[in-house]
Amino acid sequence: MRQQRLLNPTLRDVPGDAEAASHRLMLRAGLIRQLSSGIYSYLPLGLKALQHIQTIVREEMDRAGAQEMLMPALHPAELWKASGRWDVYGPELMRLEDRHGREFALGATHEEVITTLVKDEIHSYKKLPVTLYQIQTKYRDERRPRFGLLRGREFLMKDAYSFDRSKSGLDASYQAMYDAYVNIFTRCGLQFRAVEADSGAIGGTDTHEFMALAEVGEDTIVHCPACQYAANMEKAVGRISNELASPSDVATTLQPTKIHTPGVTSIKQLSQFLHMDTKQMIKSLAVLADGKPVIVLVRGDLEINEIKLNHVLGVQEVTMLSEADITAIGSVAGFIGPIGLTNVTLIADTSIQGLRNAVIGANEADYHLQHVDVSRDLGDITYVDVRNVGLGESCIHCGHELAFAKGIEVGHVFKLGTTYSESLGATFSDENGLSEPMIMGCYGIGVSRVLAAVIEQHHDEKGIIWPAAIAPYSVHLLTVQVGDEAQMALSEEIYHTLTRAGFSVLWDDREERPGVKFNDADLLGFPLRLTVGKKTSERIVECKERHNGDLYEMNVEQLLAHCQ
Ligand code: ATP
Ligand code: MG
Ligand code: MG
Ligand code: MG
């Protein structure tokens, strides 16, 4: 490809709200452009990189025995009503009506569609197991679309679904997908961890998330440097989710895993210590509430406009009160009384002086204890002092101290069981003619999110440093003086030779100053830059490797061998 004709609008500056490095670089390098919040166009170079990821995904899915298909993005509401998710999926599901007033959803995920299809087409155990996948655009009306492709409202996902006749069959299908994911993320050049995850409200059993390690990641990983243990934060603290962990499970998860939080005296500090955002932390702390309503008392500088966090947390009733609220109310009892909560858990900053007075009285000494039952004063209230909260300091498996890291969820594998096959009637008949529900698994990869995660992990201050497998082009050929006939002739020769040998080459034949070209080459970040300039008469080009900056000269005759 000749760069002269390429749609590649590079930028020196990017909008200030582009916080993530990958977002900034994708805008600067002319890979993507935003159409609307969380909705992007892929320009030619961005699309090429995305396609390379898709190719890797396809190769590994096919190798694992999965079959590619393509399903519609427009789903009749009846399907989502039949599974019960029309009501529970919430505002993230994009909904619309056709001209006849019939309701539809834009696919956020495809369990309903695939299960209905398989229900209609597969009836016998002889056709099982089967794993089907697609690479398709998904729609989710995210509450906070951000970080460019990392959290979009329209994004590309590979989603796969397995159908088995037995639990052991599901185990095998799950393992095949898990292994394929390891291969995919390795080939994409990602540093990642597979972590145990929380199966939440869907009611499955095993589930793992694949986390690309990056500071910008919105997830917190708890891992053990000494053994294989790795989990996401929710799992690590044994988040109470309706069906899953009972309060006693939570207690046993927490008991052996206390963490020291030296010098930490506020919720905010604790969240910094744990590398979590405050909301995520409060969510984890809510675990200690044994399913009771939770009241979180916070300093005035938190996002008090979200006084009702129920919606955010989803799991249980959580109310946030600011210091100012407490002062206004006079006492927590004064707040609880009117709304009729008699059995609540308080999570609080003991650094809030007003709180101390309000909850337990300034003179009561034992508020340092982790759970202080102050039922005498306020009814049945559990009080959690953040200074003593334990979130898992030593690993359950080996006793080693746990470490925390930030991750981007690039993939998710999930044993669904029979939830969808039962609600949508996907059954098969076994050898004896008995009807059984199919046992399902689902497996997602955020293909467009992977692209951003790769850049998040592979860049420097000058630009992107593509891993060879993903790079839009592998060679960037740069002609210093396009007005110089000899330089152009040599460049053309190199371009054709390399292209014919199967290399993808972008030839910078633009009439730009050399400085501009060199900067753009660093920004675009292809693995090898070849410069045709001063030593054209000796048939010598300059080579520069983007990943380590190595610079050397080479005779054109040696070049082809070198590239191979
Ligand atoms: P998250 O926790 O980041 O919201 P999720 O758990 O809701 O993701 P899944 O339902 O597990 O996502 O979807 C499968 C994969 O799709 C995720 O592992 C992630 O890689 C990708 N994905 C999910 N939401 C988005 C999004 N808004 N933008 C880009 N990729 C996404
Ligand atoms: Mg989500
Ligand atoms: Mg998730
Ligand atoms: Mg997920």
From TrEMBL:
UniProt cross-references to Pfam families, sorted A to Z: HGTP_anticodon (PF03129), tRNA-synt_2b (PF00587), tRNA_edit (PF04073)
Q: What residue stretches are annotated with the Aminoacyl-transfer RNA synthetases class-II family profile domain?
A: 33-467
For this protein, the record's InterPro entries field holds: aa-tRNA-synt_IIb (IPR002314), aa-tRNA-synth_II (IPR006195), aa-tRNA-synth_II/BPL/LPL (IPR045864), Anticodon-bd (IPR004154), Anticodon-bd_dom_sf (IPR036621), Pro-tRNA-ligase_IIa (IPR002316), Pro-tRNA-synth_IIa_bac-type (IPR004500), Pro-tRNA-Synthase_IIa_type1 (IPR023717)
Summarize the protein's role: Catalyzes the attachment of proline to tRNA(Pro) in a two-step reaction: proline is first activated by ATP to form Pro-AMP and then transferred to the acceptor end of tRNA(Pro). As ProRS can inadvertently accommodate and process non-cognate amino acids such as alanine and cysteine, to avoid such errors it has two additional distinct editing activities against alanine. One activity is designated as 'pretransfer' editing and involves the tRNA(Pro)-independent hydrolysis of activated Ala-AMP.
A single Gene Ontology CC annotation of this entry is: cytosol
Stated name of the protein: Proline--tRNA ligase
Question: Which compartments is it annotated to reside in?
Answer: Cytoplasm
List the keywords (alphabetical).
Aminoacyl-tRNA synthetase, ATP-binding, Cytoplasm, Ligase, Nucleotide-binding, Protein biosynthesis
Q: Which HAMAP family match?
A: Pro_tRNA_synth_type1
A Gene Ontology MF term for this entry?
transferase activity
Q: Which reaction does it catalyse?
A: tRNA(Pro) + L-proline + ATP = L-prolyl-tRNA(Pro) + AMP + diphosphate
* Biological-process GO terms, alphabetical: prolyl-tRNA aminoacylation
Q: What superkingdom does the record give?
A: Bacteria
Record family assignment = Belongs to the class-II aminoacyl-tRNA synthetase family. ProS type 1 subfamily.
Q: What is known of its domains?
A: Consists of three domains: the N-terminal catalytic domain, the editing domain and the C-terminal anticodon-binding domain.
EC number(s) on record?
Answer: 6.1.1.15
Gene name, please? proS
Outline the subunit composition: Homodimer.
